[in-house]
User: Which sequence fits this backbone?
């Protein structure tokens, strides 16, 4: 089998599930396809603005056992989560995870565990949404990164919620990366299936430490059956030595609702690609995000929403703030298939440039083949509103604080799309921490809390 | 209180104020009237220190100190308040949060103790009650979705909370119906005291029926062209500004 | 959507016969043999009495063209073009040296233009209300240019480009290819190798051109490509409004039109360029029609200069066209107003590029796309703010209207900004004519057809308003005819 140029496979690590015929075949097929495609280049329309430069001159190795056992002082996370799975340097850490208290009808486990315990379920479900077909009509293209993940998948998690089970507390997945000197690569493969009318909330956090360079290439497949409701929140706070590429494929069936929010505040280079198919009438997808970049960070959000049948709705709000020489890319596409009447699709991208070295490239796209639809997109770029800044300062608020207030006001609008209040507040704390010093003090409390105190 | 001497100011290289002189004593209310484009708004922005409004000559002495090189927030802390003609919308920032931040910023600057949240809310409640405003306006984001009248009332509330020494009202009457106008005027009048002064900038005499000025100035061509008592406003209402437009600067 | 279904039926019922410019003029012509080679390039060059440098320029372009790939990124679909199947030169045969004045122009040609509604008799025009100078291009050559004397009085040069090469060779040499480089894209490169005619305009400093200038393009001959090249230079402080119209006979085979338009505006100059493009669109099954592959670009070289593109695109089987502005001069302004209508099997991929280089440059894009029948239409646009374009502003509004469920409408904007003091606002919508709107109008007694016409014209209003008076009426009618059946 062909080598993958930038991966050093000489350690000969055995990948989980090796020896399972179907999985070996899948890995071989992925390797062959990646071999044929190679890493995406800006010649591909969907990679026009993002080049995987960090992979040019570094050889990444799979994570060694020792690196997987790195000592962790504190695992960040939400309070009140139902269960959590923790990965360190891409390796599962059962000592840090908490999986002992899952309600009936919920299966939440690592890929390794599932491969050992129920490979048949995995065989039946993996690849059903992402598919083996490399190109879908109007989609984001060749899917080389999906192929690479298939070839190398070595970790990840599975979430399966049974019919009618509504999980109230969020589930957590935490990736802690960058804790080893060696340049390492890992390839999480995640699979989420919510059966009919099931409900769940998942919060993923990618936290990076700045010890060494690393490359994470994850694939997540989501299948929401009729009437299911899934909230999917992600914090990307990778280190400045991280290259973070994720590809998501989701299928949203009749009357099911998918809500996602991704807050990106780190990573040398990050690319998050979402391919979402609304395959049943009444399906809805809300795909949202915020990005805050500085230094030479590069953040790419690419979405493709296929409104395949009549009576579907989707909404996208992405807002970001770019400082220094950072760069952000937003490529959003709404595709309304022939005869998918009554589709309602909205997309909005707004970016503030805080510095003259920063760059935003945005491409909000509509491809529409049905006439009875309402679709709209908007995009703006600019700097902080000078009039608003002056207004605040004329009320005595110092300039730096006024700037922070306006940035928070700008992004807070996007964070409103997070319907889970605890997550919204947790993410807002990250936004506040990102802001330069003299932090926005009043952000700690809301007017409702004021009411209570008075 | 305020002494403006031979003030010249430019916007994007064009001179708008061309030697303006004005003295306001403590406790006085002065009205500045003038045709459109005479420099009224420029004067208010220059006094509040807006970027892009460049002082090219003359001095602005406020309470014995030259304001010209101070940042907008420093001027605010020293008691200069500008009620905007078009109050700015700031989505996502609750009005009460904004006011609290402003009050404490000013107090910090003056070396005063910050108000804790409970003190602040009590103070705020008292002010809104005085002005007959609903608490609901405090919860909403700053000026977002406010009607024209609500925005102007919000400006008056901010003024009441910040207790400025010099209040500048820039066309506060524009777009207000008579009831809203009265509420705004009552708010301004309630602030009148021997230590406080106000500059009321307006195009029409109407507002001055409710906020009675000590002096009225006509600003045209970037200069004060005429000064008189409150009767001057009535004269202008009859004769218009035609007399002042033709004059060469 | 019962109302729309009916509309669709009406749209279907109209076929190519509604294209009223589809007649052929039976006139003998002087043609190059079919095909393209260095010899053909030399043949054209000789026919045009090119100076030596221009022959070299053409040959260089031809060699580059051989190596260049076809642009593939547009969302249009057609079989590979057999470039050897076209005549690259065709001119109506003329007796002797050619006409010295309008009176000597072949009456058959005059008749043709009369049928097209383009008056070439100055007397007629003077008697009427219109005041337009016309350059009429028939296949590969200019057959007549009106009002030349009046224009010369104020120093305006308006003539076929081949003539400009004799009259003001330095100007042509200085600006030709300076906005659209020879190898900009394959179609423009082909044009550089084989262009035969087109209009040349020079407006001297401080002159406001006293009348609208206009070129009327007509492809008549079978299997002929038209490769005109237009060059307009507005010198400091000048102003010109230029109109362009195009038609072709109905023919079963596809004809190629690969034009290049270059505009140069110096300090404080303004160029307003309007197009009503009504090439034969092919029949309802997509047979025949013009391939309209056009490269149009304007350079706002000077400070405070302005270039404004207005287009009404109703014809052609395939349209591939992106009139653009390079905003180099500080405070320069670029505008793009577009109505594109595709019906039956037409395909259009059109839009604009606004490249902001200078400080405080401004651009505005208003695009209205209407798609019906089995047509596919794409708005493709680029707004690019370079790091130095402090204070640049762009506003883009692009709206699409779909009529019927067998067409497509797509929006592909690229927005790139590197300057924090620049402001870009982009909005786009896609919708159909709502049943509520139609019902409301019909309830007030307006027929279905007129109701659709009203809504569509309202939808296009912002752009129609930009057209010069003389064209606005024609364009409005064209909008109606293109959607005939659905638009009264």
Assistant:
């Amino acid at each position: 089998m062909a080598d993958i140029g930038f991966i050093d496979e000489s350690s000969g690590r055995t990948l989980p599930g090796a020896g399972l015929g179907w999985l070996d075949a899948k890995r071989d097929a992925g390797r062959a396809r990646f071999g044929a495609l190679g890493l995406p280049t800006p010649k591909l329309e969907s990679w026009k603005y993002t080049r995987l430069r960090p992979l040019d001159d570094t050889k990444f190795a799979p994570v060694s056992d020792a690196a997987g056992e790195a000592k962790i002082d504190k695992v960040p996370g939400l309070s009140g989560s139902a269960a959590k799975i923790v990965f360190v340097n891409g390796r599962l850490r059962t000592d840090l995870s908490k999986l002992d208290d899952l309600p009936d009808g919920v299966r939440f486990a690592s890929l390794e565990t599932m491969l050992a315990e129920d490979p048949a379920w995995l065989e039946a479900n993996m690849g059903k949404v992402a598919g083996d077909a490399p190109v879908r009509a109007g989609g984001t293209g060749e899917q080389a990164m999906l192929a690479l993940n298939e070839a190398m998948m070595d970790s990840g998690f599975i979430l399966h919620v049974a019919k009618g089970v509504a999980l109230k507390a969020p589930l957590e997945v935490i990736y802690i990366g960058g804790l080893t000197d060696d340049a390492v690569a890992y390839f999480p493969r995640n699979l989420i299936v919510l059966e009919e009318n099931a409900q769940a909330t998942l919060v993923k956090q990618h936290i990076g430490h700045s010890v060494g360079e690393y490359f994470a290439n994850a694939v997540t497949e989501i299948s929401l059956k009729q009437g299911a409701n899934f909230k999917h929140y992600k914090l990307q706070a990778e280190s400045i030595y991280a290259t973070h590429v994720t590809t998501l494929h989701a299928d949203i069936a009749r009357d099911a609702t998918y809500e996602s929010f991704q807050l990106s505040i780190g990573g040398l280079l990050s690319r998050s690609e979402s391919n979402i198919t609304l395959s049943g009438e009444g399906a809805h997808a809300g795909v949202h995000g915020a990005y805050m970049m500085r230094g030479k960070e590069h953040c790419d959000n690419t979405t493709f929403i296929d409104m395949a049948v009549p009576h579907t709705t989707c909404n996208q709000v992405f807002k970001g703030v770019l400082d220094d020489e950072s760069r952000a890319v937003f490529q959003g596409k709404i595709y309304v298939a022939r005869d998918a009447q009554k589709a309602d699709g909205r997309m909005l991208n707004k970016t503030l440039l805080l510095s003259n070295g920063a760059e935003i490239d945005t491409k909000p796209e509509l491809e529409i083949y049905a006439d009875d639809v309402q679709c709209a997109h908007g995009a703006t770029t600019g700097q902080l509103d000078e009039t608003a800044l002056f207004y605040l300062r004329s009320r005595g608020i110092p300039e730096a604080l006024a700037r922070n207030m306006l940035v928070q006001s700008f992004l807070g609008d996007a964070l409103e799309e997070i319907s889970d209040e605890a997550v919204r507040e947790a993410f807002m704390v990250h936004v506040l921490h990102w802001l330069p010093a003299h932090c926005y003090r009043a952000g700690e409390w809301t007017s409702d809390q004021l009411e209570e105190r008075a | 209180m305020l002494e403006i001497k031979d003030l010249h100011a430019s916007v994007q290289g064009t001179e708008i104020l061309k030697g303006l002189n004005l003295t306001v004593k403590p406790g006085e209310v002065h009205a500045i009237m003038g045709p459109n484009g005479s420099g009224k708004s420029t004067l208010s922005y220059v006094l509040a220190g807006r970027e892009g409004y460049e002082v090219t000559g003359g001095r602005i002495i406020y309470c014995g100190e030259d304001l010209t090189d101070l940042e907008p927030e420093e001027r605010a802390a020293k008691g200069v308040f500008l009620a905007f003609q078009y109050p700015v919308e700031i989505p996502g920032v609750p009005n009460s949060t904004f006011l609290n931040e402003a009050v404490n910023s000013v107090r910090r600057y003056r070396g005063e103790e910050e108000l804790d949240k409970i003190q602040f809310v009590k103070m705020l409640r008292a002010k809104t009650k005085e002005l007959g405003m609903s608490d609901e306006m405090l919860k909403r984001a700053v000026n977002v979705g406010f009607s024209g009248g609500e925005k102007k009332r919000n400006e008056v509330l901010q003024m009441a909370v910040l207790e400025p020494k010099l209040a500048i009202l820039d066309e506060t009457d524009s777009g207000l119906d008579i009831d809203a106008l009265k509420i705004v005027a009552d708010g301004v009048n309630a602030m009148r005291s021997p230590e406080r002064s106000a500059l009321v900038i307006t195009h029409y005499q109407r507002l001055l029926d409710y906020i009675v000025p000590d002096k009225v100035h006509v600003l045209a061509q970037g200069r004060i062209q005429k000064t008189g008592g409150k009767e001057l406003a009535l004269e202008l209402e009859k004769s218009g500004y035609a007399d002042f437009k033709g004059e060469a600067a | 959507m019962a109302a729309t279904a009916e509309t669709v039926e009406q749209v279907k019922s109209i076929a190519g016969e509604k294209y009223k410019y589809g007649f052929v003029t039976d006139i003998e012509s002087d043609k190059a043999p079919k095909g393209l080679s260095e010899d053909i390039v030399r043949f054209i060059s000789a026919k045009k009495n090119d100076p030596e440098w221009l022959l070299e320029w053409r040959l260089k372009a031809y060699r580059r063209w051989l190596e260049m790939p076809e642009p593939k990124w547009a969302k249009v679909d057609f079989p590979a073009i057999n470039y050897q199947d076209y005549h690259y030169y065709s001119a109506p045969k003329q007796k002797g040296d050619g006409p010295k004045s309008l009176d000597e122009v072949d009456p058959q040609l005059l008749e043709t233009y009369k049928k097209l509604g383009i008056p070439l008799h100055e007397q007629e025009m003077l008697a009427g209300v219109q005041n337009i100078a016309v350059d009429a291009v028939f296949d590969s050559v200019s057959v007549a240019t009106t009002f030349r004397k009046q224009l010369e009085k104020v120093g305006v040069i308006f003539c076929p480009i081949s003539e400009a090469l004799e009259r003001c060779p330095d100007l042509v040499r200085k600006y030709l290819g300076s906005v659209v480089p020879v190898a900009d894209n394959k179609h423009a490169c082909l044009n550089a190798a084989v262009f035969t005619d087109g209009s040349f305009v020079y407006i001297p400093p401080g002159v406001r051109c006293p009348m609208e200038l206009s070129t009327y393009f007509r492809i008549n001959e079978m299997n002929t490509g038209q490769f005109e090249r237009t060059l307009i230079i507005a010198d400091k402080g000048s102003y010109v409004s230029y109109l362009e119209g195009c038609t072709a006979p109905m023919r079963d085979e596809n004809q190629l039109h690969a034009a290049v338009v270059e505009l140069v505006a110096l300090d404080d100059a303004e160029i307003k360029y309007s197009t009503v493009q009504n090439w034969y669109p092919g029949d309802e099954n997509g047979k025949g029609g013009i391939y309209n592959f056009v490269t149009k670009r304007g350079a706002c070289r000077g400070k405070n200069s302005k270039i404004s593109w207005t287009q009404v695109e109703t014809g052609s089987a395939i349209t591939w066209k992106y009139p653009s502005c390079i905003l180099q001069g500080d405070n320069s302004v670029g505008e793009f107003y577009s109505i594109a209508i595709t019906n039956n099997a037409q395909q259009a991929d059109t839009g604009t590029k606004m490249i902001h280089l200078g400080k405080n440059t401004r651009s505005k894009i208003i695009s209205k796309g209407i798609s019906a029948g089995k047509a596919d239409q794409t708005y493709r646009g680029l707004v690019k703010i370079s790091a130095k374009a402090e204070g640049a502003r762009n506003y883009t509004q692009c709206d699409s209207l779909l009529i019927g469920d067998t067409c497509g409408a797509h929006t592909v904007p690229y927005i790139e900004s590197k300057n924090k003091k620049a402001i870009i606002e982009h909005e786009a919508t896609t919708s159909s004519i709502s049943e509520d709107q139609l019902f409301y109008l019909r309830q007030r007694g307006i027929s279905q057809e007129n109701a659709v016409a009203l809504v569509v014209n309202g939808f296009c209003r912002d752009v129609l308003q930009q057209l010069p008076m003389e064209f606005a009426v024609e364009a409005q009618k064209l909008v109606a005819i293109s959607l005939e059946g659905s638009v009264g």
